Amino acid sequence: MTDHRPLTLADVEGAARVISKAFVDDPLTSYMLPFKRSREKTLFKFFRIYAEINIKAGRGFGVGDPLQGVAFWKFPSQDSMSISVKSLGKLLPLLFTMYPIGYFRARKILEQTDALHSKHAAEPHFYLDNLGVLASARGHGLSSKLIRPFLQMADEQKVSAYTDTVTKANVPLYEHFGFQCVEESFIIGTGITVYAMKRPIQ
Questions:
Q1: Domain count of the fold of the chain
Q2: pLDDT tens for each residue of the chain, 202 residues long
Q3: Of 39, 48, 109, 186, which is least packed with CB atoms within 10 Å of its CB?
Q4: At a CB cut-off of 8 Å and minimum separation 6, what does 193 contact?
């Protein structure tokens, strides 16, 4: 298995497929999209748009050929993403799915996730926005290939790293890479807990 590589626009479909499969049973996506039969299809439509925007911004990385693992990292030097008018047009297919209702349903969770990020990582930092590995490829070090090189860059730049998860089982994974759970935030009425994970400057 080779090391990670930057994703290109030719990888959009593959990246969307990997991440939608990886997140199909995620607590947040399950809460947003309770009907499992249509969930993966809806996630694929969302992540195809999401992947394209991130890849164009230089934030998408993958391992495997075909892709088996995908990560989206925001670097300290990068600005927050803005969706162009052209990209807005690509969101139209999502309007005909359960995604808009799911987004509204999960708004409290998403707002709290953003609030925790702002609270615990206001300074320049590396942000692991999303990480997904196919179930069939887990246990082979793919997550490490998508995390360690960026933490090494963080160390070289003397900055922190931050991520978050709503899956408790992921907390030990991030702790293995030096992240610390700096806050657990239970969102009343949803059954969802957001775990804010920060790796201090090394």
A1: 1
A2: 458 999 999 999 999 999 999 999 999 999 999 999 999 999 999 999 999 999 999 999 999 999 999 999 999 988 765 544 455 556 667 777 888 899 999 999 999 999 999 999 999 999 999 999 999 988 889 999 999 999 999 999 999 999 999 999 999 999 999 999 999 999 999 999 999 999 999 9
A3: 186
A4: 166, 168, 184, 185, 186, 187
Distance of CA 39 to the CA centre of its chain: 17
Q: Which of 155, 156, 133 is nearest to 199 (CA)?
A: 155
Peptide bond into 66 cis (omega under 30): yes
Residue 130 belongs to domain with CATH number: 3.40.630.30
Instruction: Note whether 63 and 69 are within 8 A (CB).
Output: yes
- 144 touches 1 (CB < 8 A): no
pTM of the model: 0.93
What is the Cα–Cα distance from 137 to 147, expressed in whole angstroms? 16
